[in-house]
Amino acid sequence: MNEMRNKITGTTGRPPLTAKEIGQHAGGMVCIHGSIYKIRKMSDFAFVLLRTAGEVLQCVYDQNYAEFDLEALKEESCVRLTAEVVLEERSKTGYDLRLKKAEVLSVPDQESPIVINQKCVDTSLDNLLNFRPVTLRNNSQRAIFKLQAGITDAFRAFLRAERFTEIHTPKIVQAGAEGGANIFQLDYFGRQAYLAQSPQFYKQMMVGVFERVFEIGPVFRAEKHDTKRHLNEYTGVDFEMGYIESFADIMEMETKMLQYTMEYLKEHYEKELGLLQVKLPVIAGIPTIPFNEAKALIADAYGRRTHEAKDFEPEEERLLCELMKKETGSEFVFVTHYPGEKRPFYAMDNRENPDVTDSFDLLFRGLEITTGGQRIHDYWEQIAKMKRFGLDPAQFESYLMLHKYGIPPHGGLGIGLERITSRLLMLDNVRYASLFPRDINRVAP
Amino acid sequence: MNEMRNKITGTTGRPPLTAKEIGQHAGGMVCIHGSIYKIRKMSDFAFVLLRTAGEVLQCVYDQNYAEFDLEALKEESCVRLTAEVVLEERSKTGYDLRLKKAEVLSVPDQESPIVINQKCVDTSLDNLLNFRPVTLRNNSQRAIFKLQAGITDAFRAFLRAERFTEIHTPKIVQAGAEGGANIFQLDYFGRQAYLAQSPQFYKQMMVGVFERVFEIGPVFRAEKHDTKRHLNEYTGVDFEMGYIESFADIMEMETKMLQYTMEYLKEHYEKELGLLQVKLPVIAGIPTIPFNEAKALIADAYGRRTHEAKDFEPEEERLLCELMKKETGSEFVFVTHYPGEKRPFYAMDNRENPDVTDSFDLLFRGLEITTGGQRIHDYWEQIAKMKRFGLDPAQFESYLMLHKYGIPPHGGLGIGLERITSRLLMLDNVRYASLFPRDINRVAP
């Protein structure tokens, strides 16, 4: 009876072969699978480009060797190919893949309306996104998200080594953490609930539990902006840590994390970095400048009048990065001590100058990619600041438990994954760094 | 000028010390930090239990050595302690921590209304959850979530080694993937949108891009159930893979992933497994039984009349696991070939018996923890099945692009992280395995 129950046996076998692994079979035969990316016919043979899990493999079709008709292969058909691995010095991989057999596993119903097998997908941003299930198959398009997976892998490896614990906090919440009207509402079994603008409250609570925590998950902002920098749903990389001496500890942790990440990408993502011609930033140290000084510096250097005294305009962020790069060589800059009225109610006021907060943003290649700082840990200090902000502490009862029942001095930050990806790869719009972006006009695919 | 900008220097230093690392300083002094978990006064000395990032460390306070008054320490105060590491054979760690100095970093405003420093938190489930920011500080409570982080770490490490790419897909969507009324609605800038019931559509699209993908993220179900098994927001572990020969490939991949995970936990989480007295299941292989046979078997063995012919009742899942354990020794069982009408429209019908699907559930210790199967990859087959299900293909235009423009035979699964955690730790209610559970009555903390 057990035998019968076990009669279905899988054939999963090993993970998909890489070009490098195929090289180890030189002189022998390999079985590979993938989608037909492109067929390039020459005078008496053809190149068949196979898109596999991680690469585009060039195979050679020669009717003197192949046991099938080339006509059997169509673009975007999924196939299993048997090929001989023939040493060939002139080939980039060091070998030729000479096709023997082909088994067609699936055939598309139609041709893609957008050409996806060129170096780039040559279409409008709107089209690129409308046809995302197909356009992501382009080898450069998908490399963006391979690298993005590399970034989160590196973040996790770094944070784990620093003894951060990964957490999963709810996205349906009773109150917004970041205040304002930029929050999606939802009917939750007859009650009003919201989509989390950040895991802020929860990660602070968890500092009391694990001291150091992080979360990589979706964040929702109902902002009506329609810019190159905004998404209404994005992936937040959040960490929070206890027992800090000042918010400089957070900045130091982020600096180390970014250094680790660049090294990690260099080591593991050479192929994608090459394909997308990415210039990884060198991070020796990150210069730091107080907000007020930065404002003055920009006004000075560019003779530019600002319309917003308490925050940066996007153009100012760009100019500050330009200045800092010229002056220090760094493509990153920490701006510190933001005015209190532009930071949330949980931001700790500076002890010497209560008009500013012990907070920071990190700018990278012209764009803010991180917001962080020290948080208030004293119960009565938090109550007082809530009241100053016109908030009713009774509405934040469970959040305030963390202060009421004791929490260490702590702080943390939030990084926008799509933003850091887009700046790293010099993508001109944050939407390019989101698989299926959500903006004020787009909720599909 | 640069100098001035860099004047803030962090003191983050190394990650929090573990008990093991402290042992390496025997004969010397260490500086440790954490929360005062409990003070146990003896006749002429006291034990001070310090809750650190990952442990509860026992320190000895003796006024002959200490340079501070014991009264300075209060439960849930956050402190930095200097202690001598004195070799002591009778101690579990091999040393005593003899307190010298104490610096109090924060003091709670009030005592916790719930006792959290006993072996268990002795209160109702409702109280446990209402006071989550405090009750999670209990050493056993937090161990649940340390182990949960271990499970996802193991999943990721396994899937990465098998060349799965991690993805982040949108949670605000235009249409539900799982059908039915169990979907949260939301106003998206004047349009109707929904919260994703699963990343199903997106992970299938991504098979066409990366062949193998996974996502660990929130999943939303507006189910009105109020049971021990249901959450309205949970963490879904989803993977999807192309080029399968049958859905058995998926089951094989999951079996290997679970085997890897149990080994991983054994190696890295000895402390937590001991604390929670977890008996890890031994997974030699997982028995497999078709749904219809399983139904008959249960009816046979227990003389039980079923009220639901096309699915299991919860009690049947429990009985089947009991039977299978008796018969095969396995605490897991795969049930295959579920009737088509109880599976979603993307499930592939069995070629020999179109009344059933090439799908499976995995039951573990009486509870369904996974649903998976092969998906339809042919465009017209999918269109036809949608119509049979009374669905309008025009509503699924972007989803259908994956079929229209070619996709390999593929399948995948979804695991409920809280469910597998709760069964692994023998927690009687899935809520115990969620940091901040969401159910029909609860949206806070």
Number of helical regions of chain A = 13
Order of helices and strands of chain A: HHEEEEEHHHEEEEHEEHHEHHEEEHHEH
How is the largest sheet of chain A built, in terms of strand order?
6-10-11-16-15-14-13-12
CATH fold-level topology of the largest domain in chain A: BirA Bifunctional Protein, domain 2
User: Could you report the average pLDDT of chain A, rounded to the nearest whole number?
Assistant: 94
The residue fraction in helices of chain A comes out at 25-40%
Biggest interface: chains and residue counts? A-B, 128 and 128 residues
Specify the CATH homologous superfamily of the largest domain in chain A.
Bira Bifunctional Protein, Domain 2
Shape of chain A: elongated
- Number of domain modules of chain A: 2
State the major sheet of chain A.
8 strands, mixed
Oligomer type: homodimer
- List low-pLDDT spans of chain A: 1-12
**Tell me, what is the CATH class of the largest domain in chain A?**
Alpha Beta
Could you give the count of β-strands of chain A? 16
Beta-strand content of chain A: 15-25%
CATH architecture of the largest domain in chain A: 2-Layer Sandwich
Q: Pairing-aware structural class of the strands and helices of chain A?
A: alpha+beta
Please compute the radius of gyration of chain A using only Cα atoms.
26 Å
